[in-house]
Structures are given as structure tokens and as C-alpha cells.
Input
Amino acid sequence: MSSTPTSAVLVVNAGSSSVKYQLVDPVTGEATAKGLIERIGLPRGEVHHTVGGTTYDEVLPIPDHATALRLLTAAFAEHGPDLGEIDLLAVGHRVVHGGADFADPTVVTPEVLITIEQLVPLAPLHNPGNLEGILAAQQAFPDVPQVAVFDTAFHQTMPPAASTYAVPRAWREQYRVRRYGFHGTSHAYVSRRVAELMERPLDELRTVVLHLGNGASATAVDGGRSVDTSMGLTPLEGLVMGTRGGDLDPGVAGHLARSGGLTIEEVDRALSKESGLLGLTGSADFREVQQRREVGDADAELAFQVVVHRLLHYVGAYAAVLGGLDVLVFTAGVGENDGELRAEVVRRLSFLGTELDEAANVGLARGEGGRISTEDSAVEVWVVPTNEEWEIARQAAEVVEGR
Output
């Protein structure tokens, strides 16, 4: 069993009907406990608390987020670690959209809560649940600083040329239409971690990070600063994802309205929930797509090639934006575990100087990281498992300890 840390950050990721949490040492990244409270608002809610390799489950009604946080504290009290024996530095909250208002992790104040609520139109599926989680945590831990860590914050360093859409001024000013980007905590962690693994100063590296999971995004990182990213105003833009199609001619929406009679709501739902791998193959699971490719499924093969094409498109573009490339990094569920996808991308980027170490790529165990390019490769290629919870804990601790 892991030893109880002397100080820690409770990392909370609250959605509309669930709360994920981890108790994380911000220095080592060790998570001494984690859990999931789900089906909030339904008659049959579930609590899962894991500590020391054992998971404790409970089924009961969970009417709201405040109840969920009380159950969270009860799980720690019953199963450990004892929060009373820990210097709880902060509760760090993942907040999806910070707009242009938040470029750094921020201690939650009444003014911050108002601003997050005002940003709900930019993330209607995420920010309301994030807000509920913060409010519930304030009740559960009234004497502990609450820190909001925004998915969009890392990308606030993008220059205007990268963040600005060429749309009417009224859209940009009144409706805040611009590129914001997401997965910021993952891109921040991975770009810093790969510099440590390479034993190179972060500020010297030109890096492209490919965060490939059910949601997927690419980011160009210049000296530790995001300078371009594939997701935009929303998480719909960019790479092919599980149920999101990524880049699309915006004229498609008008065409479907005129020719098919679809409403904006129907188009939006289809682009968010029915596109991507699901739209191409009927499955949103990349593992299943790969299994179907192995037996000659034409739809699965096309989907794989579309995914690869989009990745090549972004890496090539970002190498141009960066003025060259020092390191390419794969992360998140698909990026960390699908060696065949990595191999195809690296081979087809050989014109940039990438040279794949086939044995290293195939030899990575699930969840492991490491270098998968040869010693002679002009561009190093790495697999770095992401750790967004550690990044949130680290940022939250820095804020409260440095204020």
C-alpha cells in the first residue's frame, strides 16, 4: 500500500453527472487514492473509491454534486487515506473552458465563479458541471483553497495570427469567436516531461505533441509555449476523434440545412456525437477499428488512412510554424498504446528526418513510455504517458504556495 503523503492536492474533475477524483502528491505525482462517483441525479448512483490496490464500491441515490462531495469525504474517512492527517494544500479543479480570461491556474473567488459561468455558452456541456463541482467542494472543504486549472490556459500564449479566425469583427468581439484550444494540461505536462527525458532545456525545443484518445488534438510547442493547436472555439475542430470528425468545410452545415432540412441542433449533435470514427465505421473505439482492419474491413481501412492523413497534415504544418522540429511526442490512450498508428505516421514523416526504431516501438508495454526513434533520427520521437491529474496538482500547489 502507498504511504500517506504529508501534503497533497485533491484533484477533482466534475462533469454533468459524474465526479472523478485523485489525491495527488504534487511533487512526485503519486496518486495515493482515486475514485469515481457517477450517475449523479439518477436513482441508482455509484461510488468507487480505490486505495492500496483495492476498490470499494457503493450503490445509492446521489441527487446532486453536493451529495457526491459528501460521499467523497466519507469514502476517505472510511477507507483512507485520512484527510485529517494530510496537509491538503488545495482542491484542484479541471475547468474545460477559460476563454481568453484565464491564462494561468487561478484561486477561485466569487468573481472567478461569475466569469466561469459567463463562459458557459462556449462550453455548454462541460463548464456547468465544472461549476457544480467547485461549489460542492467549497461546501465540503470550506477552509481549503479551491484552484481552477483550465484546459484552454496553456494555449493563451498563441500569437494572434494563430488564434484569430478571419470572420466578421462582430463575431470576434461580441461572441468571442476565436481559437482557444483544449487538452492544455496534457500538452503542458507532456512537452515539459519529454524535455526532462531528453535531458534538454525546454526553452530550446521545438515540439509537436499528439494527444490521441477518444478526443484528439495536436499542439505546436515552441520553447515550452503553445504557438498553435488543432482544436478551436470548441473541441470539434482538428483531428479525427471517436465521435467528432475534426476539420470540416463550414459550408456543410448550410448545405445540410438547405438540402436535408436539418436544424442547427441536429447538425451540432451529429458533428459531436455521430461523426469521427463512429461516422466512418460504426464504432468509436480505435481498438475495434484496428481489429476490423486486420480482417480486411474496407471502412476500417479508410478510417485508419483518414486518421493518418490528418495527423500528417498537422505535423507537417506545425513543423513549418515552428521553423523545424526537434521532437514529436505521442500521448493519451491511442497515442500511448497503438504502435501501428505511430509507426505509420513516423515512417511517412521521414522527409522531416524521423527514423523509427521498430523494436523500441513494438516493445513498449501498455502504459509505458520511451524513445521510439533511432539514434540517427534527426527528429526524436517519444511516447510519453500523460498525467493530467499530476499537472493539475502541480499547478494548484504552485498557486497556493506562491501567493
